[in-house]
Amino acid sequence: MTLASVANTIQSMVLSRTNTGSKPLVLLASGAQLFTDISYGLLSKIDRSVPSASSRIDRILMDHRDAHRDDTADVQKVAIVTGANSGIGFVTANALARAGYQTILACRNPELAQEALDTLKRQTGLENFEVMQLDLASLESVNGFVKQFKAKYETLDILVNNAGVMMCPYSQTKDGTEMQFGINHIGHFALTTQLLDSLKAAKGGARIVNVASLASYMTTGIDYSAIEDKENYDRNNNYAMAKLANVTFSNALARKLQGTNVTVNSLHPGSIKTNLTRHVGTGAIMDTIFNMVLIDAQAGALTSIYLALSPDVEGASGKYYSRCEATNPHPKALDEAEQDRLWKYSENLVAKKHASM
Ligand SMILES: NC(=O)c1ccc[n+]([C@@H]2O[C@H](COP(=O)([O-])OP(=O)(O)OC[C@H]3O[C@@H](n4cnc5c(N)ncnc54)[C@H](OP(=O)(O)O)[C@@H]3O)[C@@H](O)[C@H]2O)c1
């Protein structure tokens, strides 16, 4: 049994015993899950038998190359990574370009995106990167991105929905949705549903990868009346609900995509030191501790890269992964009534905004 399986098994056991819908138990379970995650991060740094993240990424790229040896060379394969200018998205974009995909960095800030593009080209010596502006906090921007993409490309092979914000103070997207739910879920819902035709047209199948989080367990479920409740805004719970929405949306979409050549999976990337914690004041001492125990972005991108490229998960869909292994999601994400409710809620919200544009 690997260190990763041990950590996943402990987390599944905690989940199965505590997810009764009671808030104190959920909070207790969340603490235990986070502790396991951080312990794994620390142990994987100490345990010399755990291969480095970069060697595991190289292995995935080799497996991908072997599996695609017979592909026609004149078919250009295309990948999109949202939030590719930093953290996990940046490392994921690096790997997808090295696997031969024309890799689109879908980023909100043009300067940061250009900087990332220059660094990626320098790091890899490759030219197959480009920037397309995408602000997931604006449905108009999502529409503009999709238009620009479709004007240039007929097919899409890989979509990595990676961008996210965590625990920001209360604010709203340009369309009036609470920011965390709006960026993490609604923006990606609108983007993905508008790109489904391009994904279905990909020769040899396409993959959607949704970067969720362990935080998806840290709530009793999606409370639709709480999402927009500015007075009682709970930034922890809203992040957890947005991440649970990522997993629930994945599973709903997997059902809708049955019988097509498009797969969709979600994942927890690990507990990683990135810019994501910008809204969480930690202080110098906590920062030093975090640097010791949290994994780096290279290790954090491993499961995204695995799901996007590895032949091991060919055909797998509607599953939730952690540390490159399928594991149990929050039980509500498996509930088809919950999936349908989230789909209707998201669809109505997007349709309402489109009608007013
Ligand atoms: N770090 C962790 O421990 C951890 C754990 C579990 C899950 N995750 C998930 O992993 C994903 C990547 O996060 P990360 O840790 O790599 O953090 P990060 O370095 O902060 O990356 C987040 C990316 O999302 C982008 N983004 C934010 N708002 C956006 C918007 N409105 N439109 C387009 N892009 C936007 C950011 O762009 P700017 O640079 O312009 O802000 C950035 O490129 C997130 O979905 C996060 O929830 C992370």
Could you describe the 3D structure shown?
The protein has 357 residues and is an alpha/beta fold. The protein has a single domain (53-356), classed as Rossmann fold. It has 14 helices and eight strands. An eight-stranded mixed sheet has the order 3-2-1-4-5-6-7-8, sandwiched between helices. Helix 3 (53-67) packs parallel to helix 12 (302-309). The longest helix has 24 residues, at 23-46. Bound molecules: NADP nicotinamide-adenine-dinucleotide phosphate (NAP). Residues 82-83, 85-89, 107-109, 112, 134-137, 162-166, 183, 211, 213, 268-269, 271-272, 274-276 line the site of NADP nicotinamide-adenine-dinucleotide phosphate.
List keywords for this structure.
single chain; 357 residues; alpha/beta; Rossmann fold; eight-stranded mixed beta sheet; 11% strand; binds NADP nicotinamide-adenine-dinucleotide phosphate
